[in-house]
Write a structure and sequence with these properties.
globular; 43% helix; Transferase(Phosphotransferase), domain 1; protein kinase activity; Kinase-like_dom_sf; transferase; disordered N terminus; three-stranded mixed β-sheet; 290 residues; two-stranded antiparallel ribbon
Length: 290
């Protein structure tokens, strides 16, 4: 197997780290240094490992974490990414004890949407890249690869709570599978709740809880209390509309990332306008006080 790997043309695409370097940097994979866990599982084979590297070295976007290098040593297959010192969105929402303002959350959603839009349409591949696990950085798929060019047939993989129900039932992975998962993240930003919370019994699913509240015209009841008084009504309406469409049960009804990005940028403009009321000119002010 090792001889076959070395014969592949991919190892020079990025920096090669030795296992000793990885062990030194991670202090022998010390659990106390773990920043997060993703979906790159032990089932990954050598062929897909190198295909992943070949793809990732071609992706260059300010809203995507860059691949620095890899380690293929003593049966260890490791991808090395640029370190993100500010942590993860999940960490800020649920672990670090920090409170993100509504404007910060909007900007985060816009950055993520730009990254996904690039993956879907701007990578230079014929059909783009499907992330498949928006909740973290799981394996991406270059696709579609079926005869009709509409989807990728794959074993269902992803994080429950974010998983596209249509993909779960059919095994057909499309860009709209990413859109569904992104919609869940949008509601996480709005509600400040995890996608799944088993401590809440009947309300453990964020998607179900949010959907039922919106249907009952109780949108304000689901907003994170930390930002409830910050949100412009017009911004909220637009944000909920686009997030709700992302979660359509039928993928054909979900918007493309370009439309989602446009809507989120509009949300930010509406919010900024709300936060910066127009001041009367000096002439008008004089007329009012005379």
């Amino acid at each position: 197997m090792e001889t076959q790997m070395r014969s592949l043309p991919f190892p020079q695409l990025c920096r090669q780290f030795s296992l000793d370097e990885i062990l030194s940097a991670t202090q022998n994979f010390d659990d106390s240094l773990v920043e997060g866990k993703g979906g790159f599982g032990k089932v990954q084979g050598a062929t897909e490992f190198w295909a992943e590297i070949e793809m990732l070295t071609k992706l260059r976007h300010c809203n995507l974490v860059s691949l620095i290098g890899n380690c293929n040593d003593n049966s260890e297959m490791i991808l090395v990414y640029d370190f993100m010192p500010n942590g993860t969105l999940d960490g800020h929402l649920h672990k670090y004890g920090t409170v993100l303002s509504w404007v910060q959350r909007l900007k985060i959603s816009i950055g993520a949407a730009r990254g996904l839009h690039y993956l879907h349409t701007g990578t230079g591949t014929q059909h783009g890249v499907i992330h498949r696990d928006i909740s973290d950085f799981g394996l991406s798929k270059i696709g579609p690869t079926n005869a009709s060019g509409a989807y990728v047939n794959t074993l269902v993989s992803g994080t429950f709570g974010y998983l596209d129900p249509e993909y779960f039932l059919t095994g057909r992975l499309t860009r709209k599978s990413d859109v569904f998962s992104f919609g869940v993240v949008l509601f996480e930003l709005l509600c400040g709740r995890a996608a799944l919370d088993n401590s809440l019994d009947d309300e453990c699913s964020l998607v179900k809880w949010a959907y039922e509240s919106i249907k009952k015209d109780k949108v304000y009841s689901i907003i994170d209390l930390n930002i409830k008084n910050q949100i412009s009504p017009k911004c909220l309406k637009k944000f909920v509309q686009i997030a709700d469409r992302c979660l359509s049960s039928k993928s054909i009804k979900r918007p493309e990332m370009a439309e989602i990005l446009f809507a989120l940028e509009l949300c930010l403009r509406l919010q900024n306008k709300f936060d910066t009321p127009v001041k009367p000119t000096a002439g008008i002010y004089c007329q009012l006080v005379e």
